[in-house]
Each structure stands twice: as C-alpha cells, then as structure tokens.
Amino acid sequence: MNNVDQQEISKFEALAATWWDPQGQSKPLHQINPLRSQFIELHSQGVAGKQLLDVGCGGGLLSESMARAGAEVTAIDMAAASIQVAKLHALESQLTINYQQQTAEQLAAEQTATYDVITCMEMLEHVPSPQSVIAACEHMLKPGGWLFLSTLNRTKRSYLMAIVGAEQVLNWLPKGTHDHSKFIKPSELMAMTDELGLFSRAISGFRYNPLTDRFSLHSDVSVNYMVACQKPA
C-alpha cells in the first residue's frame, strides 16, 4: 500500500506545468504517445467501449488518447499537481476521465477483476517495488483482459540514450529524472508477469531517428520497450 518513493513523486510534481507542452520537457512522451496508443489498440483488439485503467497517468497524455479512442478511462497517479493538470486538460478537451490520486495497490484493495485493459507506462522504474504494482494490476484485470507495461531496459545503450543523451545533452528531461539501476531488463519483467500467471503476448522497442527527430516501433528493445500481457480467460 505504501509502494511510493516521495523523491520520485517530487520529480514529476515539478514537471506538472509542462506536461502538455509538445516542445517542453515532456516532448519525448508526446512523440511516443501515438506509438503507445497504436500498440495498445492493436493487441487489445481496440479499446472502444472497454473499461481501461491508466496507472501512473501523469498529466494524462495516454489517458486522453484512450478516451478519444472510446474507452471508459480511470486514471491514477500519486503526484497531486499532475492529477490537477490532467483534470484541467480533460475539462478543456471535453473528455470524461475519472482521475484519482492513489496507488495501484490502494485501488486494488477496493476493486477486483474490474478492467478490460490496464496500462502502466514509464512508471515501473520509479517505484520501490515494480512487482507490487504489476500484482495489483493483475488483481484488477478481468479474465482475458490485457495489461500493457513499458519501461527502460538496463543496458549500456539505455544509459547513453536515456540519461546521457536525453537528460545531459539534449535536455529533454531534467537531470536526475532516471536512475539507471532501477531500469528493468525484459527478462526480469517477464519473470514478474510469469509469476502472476500472465501470458506475454508481444514486445516492442522504440527507435529514435535523430535526422527526422521521430520515434518508431522497432524490434530493438535495448532502450525503451513495451510488453503486452494477457490474463488467462
């Protein structure tokens, strides 16, 4: 229930005002958000009309994309400032999203087998126990439902790209946003999902092209990657 690192929360509180600036410090998230949405839509066979939970929603980039795609969205985050920004932007966008400031574990204590789709993007590397978050998500997922996870691989390349490049050279993110020791290898993530009885159905990485300043989905998972898991029916 207390799977929270207050220092990590403070980092994202400080970013709250720039969540919706596509050229600001959330620029990489804006660039990959359509790719995340594409991956989720493809493997879940569409989210329209489904109950969807976005864990670690931040300012609501993915939450709004899923709502626009027709999902009934609940979104949670522990950064109060981010939740406030998300609520305001949803109001301006005329979207109905149920934003709540709480952890996945707290929500799981109230809800069982509630959601058709659960997303947890770029969040696992910021909590003390990723396994606890995944277990809470599995508990809230309906039989046959889909869990989408994304995080950073713990490799030399991810250190160079995500920390040296994104934080220190390009200034895409504030210095200290990421801790390389908290990055999660795909094999480690798969071990967590396997232990909970989830089936890993697909994995995809992101590839950045500096010439076009664009990201694309790629088989290379050495930096950022996403996994689609399904709960047995």
From TrEMBL:
The keyword Methyltransferase applies. Belongs to the methyltransferase superfamily. UbiG/COQ3 family. One of its GO terms (molecular function) is 2-polyprenyl-6-hydroxyphenol methylase activity. CDD domains: AdoMet_MTases (cd02440). Pfam families: Methyltransf_23. S-adenosyl-L-methionine binds at R36, G56, D77, M121. This is Ubiquinone biosynthesis O-methyltransferase. The gene is ubiG. InterPro entries: SAM-dependent_MTases_sf, UbiG_MeTrfase. It catalyses: a 3-(all-trans-polyprenyl)benzene-1,2-diol + S-adenosyl-L-methionine = a 2-methoxy-6-(all-trans-polyprenyl)phenol + S-adenosyl-L-homocysteine + H(+); a 3-demethylubiquinol + S-adenosyl-L-methionine = a ubiquinol + S-adenosyl-L-homocysteine + H(+). SUPFAM superfamilies: S-adenosyl-L-methionine-dependent methyltransferases. Keywords: Methyltransferase, S-adenosyl-L-methionine, Transferase, Ubiquinone biosynthesis. Signal peptide: none annotated. It is an enzyme of class 2 (transferase). O-methyltransferase that catalyzes the 2 O-methylation steps in the ubiquinone biosynthetic pathway. Pathway: Cofactor biosynthesis; ubiquinone biosynthesis. Its EC number is 2.1.1.222, 2.1.1.64. One of its GO terms (biological process) is methylation.
